[in-house]
Amino acid sequence: MNEAMHRHADANRMDGPMTPMPAAPAVFPAASPAVGRAAVMAVPLLLSLACLPSVASAQGQQPWPSRPLRVVVGFTAGGPVDLVARIVSPRLSAQLGQPVIVENRPGADANIAMETVARASPDGHTLLLIQPGVAINPPLYRKVPFDPIKDFAPISLIGESPNLVAVYNGLQANTMQELLALARAKKGGLFYGATSSPTHLATELLNTLAGVQTTRVPFKGAPPALAALMSGEVQIVLSSIGTLLPLAKAGKVRALAVTSAKRSAVAPDLPTVQESGVPGFVATTWYGLAATGGTPRPVIDRLNAEVRKVLAEPEVRTQLAGQGIDEPSPGTPEQLAALIRSELVKWEKVVRASGAGIN
User: Fold this and answer.
1) What is the pLDDT of residue 61?
2) CA-CA distance, 17 to 20, in Å (whole number)?
3) Helix (H, G, I), strand (E, B) or coil at 222
4) Who has the most CB within 10 Å: 46, 189, 193, 218?
5) Residue 53, exposed/middle/buried by CB under 10 A (0-12, 13-18, 19+)?
6) How crowded is residue 266: how many other Cβ atoms within 10 Å of its Cβ?
């Protein structure tokens, strides 16, 4: 190419002096020195803005969300975790402009559901309705198919609810004190329905602190455990106040106490377990949302912002109050991560003290 240019230049010289080409007409007026300096200074700013992360760029230039989302629940439909998911999901769908589908994957104390989310693509389209089982199952089971810290990306806490201690109507126990006295006398002869690993360990914590022994009967969620309680197949169930309180009000089971540190606004006449002679006993259920570990931070931040908007809606707050969540408490992803870490420490101690480990 250079050789051709030289030949062209030589030809021009042989033909005589080159005739200057007429100047091209000015399309734009010449920029002033000040404008020129401003344009030069703007280049780094434009380049830096182009490099800022966005939800679209984080998803390989696809806008997020690009398809329906699913919220995986580790328990059967109609239980407390499922109900919280079904309160939040439609509003989240409206905020995101995509369907948000609740998917029930019960079994193995929610380990199946947690493995499903842990193994999903980290693109923000698969979420987990997270609950204390994420911190309870690792110390409770000899082996779990997920890492509670690495495999999940916390989004936000939704809220916290007390549990309720309820008994079969035919049991000769009208107060928490009478139940504990009966449990001491029967020495393992009373059966409790475990609706999940959190209620399992909460009951074992109660056994340890009260110095009693009861026998566990596992169920795949609250609905079958409550049916067993009403029939007398089991005599005790410790579960969400949102699912047990309606049955107690209907006279189908007998409510004795709440498991929170203070009385619940939805059942102010019920004493706490601590008031009933078991100091130090607190075992609440908290709910939150998490994505698969490695989900891009812009997606997590968008989800966090939308969850906060959902939990500010008056209708949502009223529905959550019906599940015993007196005050929704959204927070940062870091706050939910810290809660999971603290719960791991707490429940590992309970497993060791109670010998409740499952092989």
Assistant:
1) 54
2) 9
3) helix
4) 193
5) exposed
6) 19
Q: What are phi and psi of 321, to 5 degrees?
A: -60, -35
CA separation for the pair 327, 318 (Å, rounded): 10
Handedness of CA 254, 260, 264, 266 (dihedral sign): negative
- Name the helix (H) or strand (E) containing 169: none
Tokens 């499922």: give the residue. 82
Chain-centroid distance, C-alpha 338: 13
- CATH number at 121 reads 3.40.190.150
Nearest C-alpha neighbor of 207 from the set 102, 354, 321, 8: 354
Q: Kindly report whether the global pTM for this prediction surpasses the value 0.85.
A: no
Residue bearing tokens 């409740």: 356
Tell me the per-residue pLDDT of 272-329, one tens digit each, with 9 for 90 and over.
999 999 999 999 999 999 999 999 999 999 999 999 999 999 999 999 998 999 889 9
Tokens found for residue 241: 């106040």
Sheet holding 152-161, edge to edge: 100-104, 69-73, 126-130, 285-292, 152-161
Residue that terminates a domain, selected from 217, 242, 258:
258
Structure tokens at 323: 């599940």
* Tokens encoding 81: 């975790």
Instruction: Answer with the one of 210, 241, 258 that is the final residue of a domain.
Output: 258
Residue whose C-alpha is closest to residue 273's, from 225, 205, 323, 219: 205
